[in-house]
Amino acid sequence: MYEAFNINIWFSPRYAINYLWSQVYRNGQRVLASNKFKKEREAWIMGVALFGVMKIFKTRWWLQIPLTDPPDMLAMTIATNKEMNINEMHHREIEIMQITKYTKNEIDEEILRKLKNKAYIKETGLVVYLNRTTLIQDMRSLSTKIKEEKINIADIWILGLESKNSEDYVFFSLLPDVQVIRFNLKEEMDNLGPGDTIEMSRSKGTKMELVKNVALTKFIPK
Predict the structure, then answer these.
(1) Using omega within 30 degrees of 0 as the cis cutoff, is the peptide bond preceding 176 cis?
(2) How far is the C-alpha of 110 from the C-alpha of 150, rounded, in Å?
(3) Phi/psi of residue 92, each to 5°?
(4) Which of 68, 97, 105, 212 is deepest in the core (most CB within 10 A)?
């Protein structure tokens, strides 16, 4: 039994990944192409990317599908303010895009086309999923091409499989700096701590109370 969608409840990246897989199991391969499942696919991309983020920054991150688009996704982490004895939620707005075998342009051209004439709030990030075989010889050169243009976004990350039929991913940033991490998705999912949903509720002032192991809610707001 599912509850109504709750904007205070956030999902682990593992939940987002397993959710898409469950939809493929129930509805077949059309889930990977149908516009009906666009948000589920974006959440999967966000989930895989967050495993890269967590490996780089050593902090746990959660995601949520917002009620309105843009942004495509919300991501957040929790930091403890020891001086004030509170938990602080730091969240990011994230745009998701895919580059597939049907995409004819180069990576930098597609990214610039995506961002052209778009207005995003400060600190919005872009995650680009390379869903095609692509050889990137020089990440820094690609980063330089992006930086030569006027970019209205805080950071850009690229996600892709290192080899076909594997679960080894490479995750790297083009903006503001080049950072690279490699990880095995199955290993990271297995090593993630318990709990696939949490609830962040506001109490007094800016204090946030963290409630773990809440009941599952609808993953997609309707």
Answers:
(1) yes
(2) 15
(3) -125, 145
(4) 97
Cis omega before residue 70 (within 30°)? yes
Which pTM was predicted? 0.89
Q: Is 79 or 114 the better-scoring residue by pLDDT?
A: 114
3: which residues sit within 8 A by CB, 6+ positions away? 215, 216, 217, 218
User: What tens digit of pLDDT does each residue of 27-61 get?
Assistant: 999 999 999 999 999 999 999 999 999 999 999 99
User: What is the C-alpha to C-alpha distance for residues 158 and 97, in angstroms, rounded to an integer?
Assistant: 10
> Do the beta carbons of residue 11 and residue 220 sit within 8 Å?
no
Q: CA torsion angle for 100, 106, 110, 113 (degrees, to 10)?
A: -150
* Pairing status of strand 208-212 against strand 73-81: unpaired
